[in-house]
DNA sequence: GTACAGGTTCCGT
DNA sequence: ACGGAACCTGTA
């Protein structure tokens, strides 16, 4: 699938902005296991080439139907956002699998990106399904049922630390049906957040990341330390004032603004 | 050896 | 309700 060059889609920005953890540089592009297959993406002359047999899936996953230029214009209200957009304007918000996103952001707690990626790969390698593509070996993300039967100590080789019991708690609640991840799709953000927070290790920040990156609740604005820092420094708004500030400033597009500002905050 | 990292939970006021 | 320490591990 070929996508002509657009200022609204940059692979490096999209994969590097912290919303996803399984895209890796490979050859002259990137590769990732999404669901049960390997997707590859690379920049080529005049655009982006995406290698995946299911075009409908690619369209949904990369959110290709949405007009990002229009969104960026709507939130481009001051010099701060304008500067952020210079280096981050090619970010797209990926529509990711809720279960994988849930576990990934439980792991993100008090952690850094390289180690988050390492832990997720270890879990996939140990408990996912092996697939081979172009002679390379990959692993799918483990199903809830595959983790639900385990004791937290079984995750020790993945070096999750104190998060191991949270991952198992999530797996058991999802595998048993106690938590229905699908049902969150049709809830508003506040309802969805309260359901997700029933899982140990899921607080406001982790829940908001899942709502934004898996359920496309674009008004949600996850507040991590970087965002708190940059909103404080550049807008002079304290932690407790962020929600009101964001609602007033970015309205229903808070999540997009969060990604642009976050990318900017990390240089 | 010590501090700290994209957060949550627990235990004090 | 609210603020601070602890949590597992890897890295500086």
Q: What's the rounded overall pLDDT mean? A: 96
Q: How many strand segments?
A: 7
Q: Give the count of helical stretches.
A: 13
Q: SSE order in H/E notation?
A: EHEEEEHHHHHEEHHHHHHH
Structural class: alpha+beta
Spatially, the strands of the biggest sheet line up as: 1-5-4-3-2
Distance between termini? 31 Å
Estimated helix fraction: 40-55%
Using the alpha-carbon principal axes, give the shape.
Answer: globular
The CATH class of the largest domain is identified as Mainly Alpha
Main sheet: strands, sense, barrel? 5 strands, antiparallel
Can you offer a commentary on this structure?
With 267 residues, this protein is an alpha+beta fold. It has helices at residues 11-16, 55-61, 68-75, 79-88, 98-107, 113-127, 144-148, 164-175, 189-196, 204-213, 225-235, 242-250, 254-265, and strands at 2-4, 24-26, 29-34, 37-44, 47-51, 130-133, 136-139. The strands form two sheets. A five-stranded antiparallel sheet has the order 1-5-4-3-2, with no helix packed on it. Strands 6-7 form a two-stranded antiparallel sheet. Strand 4 (37-44) and strand 5 (47-51) form a beta hairpin. Helix 9 (189-196) packs across helix 10 (204-213) and helix 11 packs across helix 13. The structure holds a DNA duplex (13 and 12 nucleotides).
């Amino acid at each position: 699938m070929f996508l002509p060059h657009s200022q609204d889609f940059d692979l490096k920005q999209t994969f590097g902005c912290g919303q996803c953890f399984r895209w890796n540089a490979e050859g002259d592009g990137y590769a990732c296991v999404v669901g049960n297959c390997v997707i590859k993406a690379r920049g080529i002359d005049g655009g982006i080439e995406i290698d995946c047999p299911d075009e409908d899936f690619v369209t949904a996953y990369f959110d290709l139907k949405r007009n990002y230029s229009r969104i960026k214009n709507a939130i481009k209200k001051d010099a701060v956002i304008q500067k952020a957009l210079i280096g981050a304007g090619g970010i797209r918000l990926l529509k990711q699998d809720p279960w994988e996103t849930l576990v990934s952001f439980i792991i993100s707690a008090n952690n850094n990106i390289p180690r988050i990626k390492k832990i997720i790969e270890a879990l996939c390698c140990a408990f996912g399904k092996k697939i081979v593509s172009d002679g390379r070996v990959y692993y799918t993300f483990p199903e809830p049922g595959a983790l639900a039967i385990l004791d937290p100590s079984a995750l020790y080789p993945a070096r999750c630390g104190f998060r191991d019991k949270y991952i198992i708690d999530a797996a058991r609640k999802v595998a048993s049906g106690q938590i229905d991840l699908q049902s969150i799709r049709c809830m508003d953000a506040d309802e969805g957040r309260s359901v997700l927070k029933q899982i140990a290790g899921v607080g406001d920040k982790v829940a908001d990341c899942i709502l934004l990156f898996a359920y496309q609740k674009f008004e949600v604005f996850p507040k991590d330390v970087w965002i708190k820092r940059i909103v404080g420094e550049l807008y002079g708004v304290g932690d407790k004032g962020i929600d009101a500030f964001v609602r007033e400033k970015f309205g229903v597009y808070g999540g997009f603004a969060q990604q642009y500002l976050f990318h900017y905050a990390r240089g």
